[in-house]
Structure formats: C-alpha cells, structure tokens
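If I may wish for something, please sit down with the protein I am sending here and say whether tokens and residues agree:
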Amino acid sequence: MKRANPNPNANRNILILTYVILGAFFGLMVYFCHFLFKEREGVMNNSYNARLESFSERVVRGRILSSDGQALAQTEVGANGEELRVYPFGSLFSHVVGHSTKGKTGLESLGNFYLLSSHGNLLEEIFHGLADQKSQGDDVITTLDVGLQHTAYLALGERKGAVVAIEPGTGKILAMVSKPDYDPNPASLDAAWEMLISSDNDQGQLLNRASQGLYPPGSIFKIVTILEAMRENPEGYLDVHFDCSGVFQEGPYSIRCYQSTAHGSQNLGQAFANSCNGAFASLGLTLDQESMGQLTRQLLFHTELPLSIPYSKSSYNVAAVGSLMERLAASAGGDPLALTDGEVSQWEVLQSSIGQGKTLVSPIHFAMITSAIANGGILMKPYLIDRVQNEAGEEVRKFLPESYGSLMTAEESGKLNDLMVQVVTEGTGSALRDAPYQAAGKTGSAEFETGKETHAWFTGYAPAEDPKIAVTVIVEEGGSGGRTAAPVARAMFDQYLLR
C-alpha cells in the first residue's frame, strides 16, 4: 500500500513558526544584553523603581569624593546601626553633589546606582548576607576640585549667580557653584525644607543656576555673531569699520552701548574687544538670519546637551531668510517693516545680535561653547564622575573623556582665540591683563528688566596658547561684566594655574 505524501504546506508553516520563535528568542536575548549593559543603570536610578529600597536595606550608601579623595558626602553609621548622610563641606557643593534626604539630586542621583552597589571581598559579602549585616557601598570619585570650588564660592560671595569651570581637553567639570544655596545636611535641610519649597520663596535656593538657569547672554553672545560674520566674509570680516557715538540709531530704534560709552572709529576686532553694541547691532542687520539660525543650532541652541545632570535648553528665536538689510533695500517705496511669514522685525535682529531679545542661555552651555573654542573647535562631553572604586580602593569602573564633535573648525576657533585675547589685552577684560599667564575671554552685561541693574557675564579660558581651564561666570544684577564677573574668573585662573 502506497504511503501518502506529507502536506507540503504544513511543513512550510511549521518551518515559518520555528523561524518566528527563534527570531523572537534572539530578539529577546539582544534586548536583554542591551538592557544589561545600556539601560540597567537608568532603570535602577529611576525614582519609581521600588527595588532601590531593597538595595539600601543591604548596602550602606557609598561616599562621594572629590578628585583628590576628600569626602563630599558620606554615611555615618551609629552604634545601633542608624545611618546619617553627612555633607562635610555643607553648602559649598550643595547643588552639584545634591542631597539624598528629600529625594535625590545632583551626584547623589547621578551616582545612585554605584553608591548602592558593593564590589567588596566576595567572602565578606557572603558573610554579611548570612549575618544579616550591610555591605559597604562603592565610592564615586568625581572630577571636582575642592580648592577651585572654594575659590569660586568665595569670589561669588553673597551675590546670586553661577560659576562653571571645565577642563577643555577632557570635558571634566572642575567646579560648579550656584547661589543662593542651602545646607544639604539632613538636620538643616529638614528645618528649612518647607521654606525652600514654599510658593512664597522667590530666592530659588534649590535651583542649580549653573545648568538650569536661563539668562539673556548679552555681549558674550557677540562670540556667536562674529563667528557668523567670519563665515559669511572669511577674508574681510575684520575690515568692517564703525563709528560709535555711544548710541546707534536705525529708523525708530536705538541701541546704546554700556553706559552710552562712545567708542569712536573702530574695526570689528576693536568693536569686539570694546564690546560695542552699536557695531554689532549694525553688523547683525547685514547677516543672513537663516544662516545665523543654523549656526546657533550647531552650537546646541534648541538642542539636547550632552549632559547627565538636569539642565534647561538654551534658545535663539530669530528665524528669517536672507539679511534684513537686503530685504529693506528690496522693499523701497513700501513699508520696510511689513514682514511675511518666517521673517523677523528689525528690532529683533538688532537685539539678538547683541545677545538680547528672546535669546536665553545657561551658564554651562556657554562654558561648553567656550571650551570648544579653547579645544580647537572640538567639544568634549562634560562629565562629573571620574571613576568608581570599592571599599578597598580598587577601581570598579573608569569613565574616559569622550568627544561630542566639532562645533566649529580649528581655523575658526583660532581666529576667535585671537579676538578673545584682544578683549583681555586691549578691551573690557582688563581684570586679567596683568596676570602672569595670557587669558582669553569675553565680558558681557545683559539687560533683563527695566529699572534693574544688568547681569554681569564673563566667559574665557587660560592659558590662551595651551588652555587648561575654561570658566563661565554670571553675577545676577552685577552690572559690568568686566568689573564684576571677570575678577571671579581671574581668582579661579590664579588658583588653578598658579598653585
């Protein structure tokens, strides 16, 4: 009797089902590996993850240490096993180290996974588990420099503002100060908490102004404006001359230099050194605003920053096609201020060219731009954790410098360097002129509210020929950047380079 042939369709369906199951299995394995190596820390650090509590039940939270091994945060264990998180420097590192009592902020949040992990001796770990004792968590060694942090803190004084210092060649964050501040030690924080979170409190002590504060950049934004001029006219941008009477008038609009100072006849390099508003407002009218918008996006405005701490996005809200001067000339006989969709008003261009109007930046963002200039146009990703080590001091994990990419060409950064050196040697950066090293920088004074003193800015680096440190300073309502913010940076350069 002849055997019936098997159904070929059934065989094919079984084969397809087998491939689907195998594909799903391998997909699951790929996702598991991705989770294990890429997503695990983020999930473990999530405040909604209930397993975090189980970690703290069997591990004593590790220490947060400065770059030279000083304890910035540690857990003290009492005779009865009670634990107290202690911050030996009090308010000095309050924003960057953060706190772990009322939720977790700063490095207490960023390094949470490591602080609640324990990589001690295996036999000791087993013994602790059997004896129902806690193991010691790993230590997080940061990039923070205690001396530099202390210098920035004292130099800023009682004034509101922020200071950020970065090592341009690596991206290491060396210091980060924000004021007003608070004492993160539990007893002090508990006593002040209701006041700190009260809707009636307008001081913002819990806000890290260095990364989350947004301010009009004022004249430090002229770095961006002159970079655009450099790109549009690479050979002749410095040949542009401007006669400054202290007030620049364009139609119904007027732009004043700081305290109406008349700078006289100057080329663009001199105008940059003198921080002449009139020259840069006039320059802005000639620039291609669409290209300017592209440049700001390249410099990470309206863009995610390569930062692992909470931050606010900077913004540049001028978007137009072609230069405003060309459009005004083309509209002869008509209303020059009648704008079509996508165009901007003359006033917006005048204001944005000198860092006013709707433009807002965070101090750390401009510190990153400054670091890229100092590093030949390459931005290194800023980071705060250098390595993780266990209780015995053995390295568990090392974090290496990582390049974000090029924000500008090496030639452009070199030209900006020369201009920023000129600010120090001839212009508004006179607070650094007699330093035993050559600094490069840009000062700024930013208007933000009628009737109030301007915010004072400085951003720069040193030594100019081989940058080791970049610093950005903002002093709220500090007036002149050259007189108020530049001395803060000078103190930091001195402390870091001359010690």
Summary: Residues 16 and 22 are 10 Å apart (CA to CA). The longest helix spans residues 8-45.
